[in-house]
Structures are given as structure tokens and as C-alpha cells.
Amino acid sequence: MRLIFKYNFRTSAEELNTTYTFKNSKEIITGHEQHRRISILKSARRCRNREELIRGRAILTFQNKLQLREELRTRWCRR
Fold it and tell me: What angle do CA 45, 4, 74 make, to 5 degrees?
């Protein structure tokens, strides 16, 4: 699956200290983790390689990618 991002990424201290909860998920992550996952997905778009999604112990599942993309569309998208 190819992910296409056309978003402006804004980073502020308030956003990084915000806690996000994905819909249909019990997972709670902080803004730092959110932006880290965004960078992982952006790099995955460039390389289109599933192994490249792994950064350290971080593995984004397909469901997480869908949820994160939905989060990006609502929070960061500026057209």
C-alpha cells in the first residue's frame, strides 16, 4: 500500500505534550510519539519498503497506519 502525504507539519510544544488516542484503539500516545510515527510514515513513503518501517523497536501495523493517516487528515491537513 502506497501512502501519499500532502500535509504541512506543524510542531509546537503544546502539540508535543498533548496525548492522542486513536479511534478504535486502546493505545494512548504522546505528541512526541505521534510526530515520530509521522516521520516513520513519511520515510516509508519514500522507500516503499516494509522493513524500513522499523525504527528501533517501533513497528507500525497496517491498522495503525490507517488510524494515523486519519489523524493526520483531521489534525494537520491544510489544503
Answer: 120
Q: What is the mean pLDDT of residues 11-27?
A: 50
Judged by DSSP in three states, 10 sits in: coil
Using one digit for the tens of pLDDT, what is the confidence trace for 25-43?
555 556 666 667 666 666 6
Whether 60 contacts 27, CB under 8 Å: no
Cβ neighbors of 73 (< 8 A, separation 6 or more) are none
pTM, 2 dp: 0.24
Give CA separation, 43 vs 1, 52, 57, 70, 72, in Å. Answer: 14, 8, 16, 18, 15
Amino acid letter, 22 = F
Q: At what angle do helices 62-75 and 31-47 cross, to 10 degrees?
A: 110
